[in-house]
């Protein structure tokens, strides 16, 4: 840790150290002050390492830090929702790891972090903490727990499926992110590195004066998108493994930073299957768990990267539970609304551009008219696909809602996770006779919406899923006995 901490602090110290050297003209005194800064980071790392301790005392975990003021954090073991073990590059070289404990009580931040424990100690603590946290649940279900193996591998994603990585839109932007970071670095550190912001502006103006070269750079970035995107995807999802162990779902992945995330099965309330437009054409999807009290669910809740659709539904059914019902279609008014929103704005733009072209006679306006009409034509299949993606259903145990086109989300939630219903209707929805039905869930996003359902569906679906909630309002009140004449 005396090596890791200074190296980790180096990015924040690099700019001040370079500034000290430049201001001092690279003299002996400037090198001395730079050395003092480096020694100071090492001393700070020594103090941090020497003043931090952790201990399991009875039914709680205590972490203590006494750098300046004494701080003691106590975490009841029964409140632990998951344990995340990761091995960043430097930690892996030195045989160390980072163990993060999530209790679901701190939003997106973990409750405790043990940085720099050995791999053996991390695995020992992980098994110990999860075993003690799940002891009460295991005792309540002792016959069921004893019937099956303590560890079961659900899926090990084949490496050939890493070729699906470029289909995920987020990774495709990697080349542009690298170029943007380089430009920001040039403007931020240009003066310290000797070429200054004026040189960066001059380079930009020279590129702008040579549009063909600029176009070539843009083409190279576009061509590099699938390769760099696929590389980053493989780095983060290398050897993806999902298994069930001692009442927890454990997902392990990563090449440079190997990460292991444990989710308490008793807290999992469903799953969300997501695919983009390109992924849908390739018939691949991604899967996230819907978990109560889970911080950073978009990262820690991932159950599967891009895998074939049939495999994803099978693994989700084995890990959490199947959904055994068809989705119900939404009324034709929902289709009309999606077609209108996908086509009408472009028709308005085409009309305005045509008027401008007629008034000015400028040819660029006609180009804009043609482009708007083409986009309006593309909006027709997009609107139909958005309507085809709508659906909701209930199989007696779990309910499901689906919506979206460019990013389609299919959420399957246990009935016991529903904590309320919300009906929302805009002015345009009232005119169309549809509304949005939101199932309030104490997990995941907190609510999952069935868009543009009919008024009959909005009344019948909650009554079907949670009939006991509505029964007191539908049954007539009991008749009061009539008093006898003597009374």
TrEMBL record:
Which UniProt keywords are given for this protein, alphabetically ordered?
Answer: Membrane, Transmembrane, Transmembrane helix
Q: Which residues form the YdbS-like PH domain?
A: 49-127, 398-458
The reply to whether Transmembrane helix figures as a keyword in the UniProt entry is: yes
Would I find Transmembrane among this entry's keywords? Answer: yes
Which residues, if any, are the signal sequence?
Answer: none
Source domain of life: Bacteria
Please list every transmembrane segment annotated in the UniProt record, as residue ranges. 7-27, 33-57, 161-189, 209-236, 339-359, 365-384
Kindly provide the name given to this protein in its UniProt entry: PH domain-containing protein
């Amino acid at each position: 840790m005396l090596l890791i901490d200074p190296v980790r602090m180096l990015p924040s110290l690099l700019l001040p150290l370079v500034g000290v050297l430049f201001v001092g003209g690279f003299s002996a005194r400037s090198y001395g002050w730079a050395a003092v800064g480096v020694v100071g980071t090492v001393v700070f790392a020594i103090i941090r390492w020497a003043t931090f301790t952790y201990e399991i005392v009875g039914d709680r975990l205590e972490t203590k830090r006494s750098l300046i003021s004494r701080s003691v954090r106590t975490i009841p073991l029964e409140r632990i929702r998951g344990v995340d073990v990761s091995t960043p590059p430097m930690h892996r070289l030195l045989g160390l790891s980072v163990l993060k404990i999530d209790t679901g009580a701190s939003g997106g931040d973990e409750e405790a972090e043990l940085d720099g424990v050995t791999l053996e100690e991390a695995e020992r603590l992980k098994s110990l903490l999860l075993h003690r946290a799940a002891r009460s649940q295991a005792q309540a279900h002792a016959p069921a727990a004893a019937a099956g193996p303590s560890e079961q591998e659900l899926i090990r994603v084949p490496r050939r499926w890493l070729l699906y990585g470029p289909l995920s839109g987020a990774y495709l932007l990697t080349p542009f992110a690298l170029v943007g970071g380089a430009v920001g670095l040039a403007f931020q550190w240009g003066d310290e590195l000797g070429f200054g912001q004026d040189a960066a502006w001059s380079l930009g103006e020279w590129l702008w004066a040579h549009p063909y070269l600029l176009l070539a750079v843009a083409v190279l970035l576009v061509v590099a998108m699938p390769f760099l995107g696929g590389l980053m995807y493989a780095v983060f999802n290398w050897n993806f493994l999902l298994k069930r162990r001692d009442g927890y779902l454990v997902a392990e992945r990563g090449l440079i930073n190997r990460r292991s995330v444990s989710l308490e099965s008793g807290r999992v309330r469903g799953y969300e299957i997501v695919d983009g437009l390109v992924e849908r054409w390739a018939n691949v999807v991604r899967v996230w768990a819907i978990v109560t009290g889970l911080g950073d669910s978009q990262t820690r809740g991932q159950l599967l990267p891009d895998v074939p659709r049939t495999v994803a539904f099978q693994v989700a059914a084995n890990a959490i539970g199947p959904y055994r019902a068809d989705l119900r279609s939404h009324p034709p008014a929902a289709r009309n609304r999606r077609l209108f929103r996908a086509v009408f704005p472009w028709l308005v733009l085409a009309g305005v551009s045509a008027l401008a072209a007629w008034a000015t006679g400028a040819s660029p306006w006609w180009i804009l008219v043609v482009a708007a009409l083409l986009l309006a034509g593309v909006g027709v299949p997009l609107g139909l696909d958005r309507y085809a993606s709508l659906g909701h259903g209930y199989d007696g145990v779990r309910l499901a809602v689906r919506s979206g086109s460019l990013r389609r989300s299919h959420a399957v939630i246990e009935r016991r996770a529903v904590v309320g219903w919300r009906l929302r209707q805009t002015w345009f929805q009232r005119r169309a006779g549809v509304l949005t039905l939101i199932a309030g869930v104490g997990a995941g996003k907190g609510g999952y919406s069935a868009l543009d359902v009919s008024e009959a569906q909005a009344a019948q679906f909650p009554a079907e899923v949670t009939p006991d909630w509505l029964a007191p309002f539908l049954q007539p009140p009991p008749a009061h006995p009539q008093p006898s004449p003597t009374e």
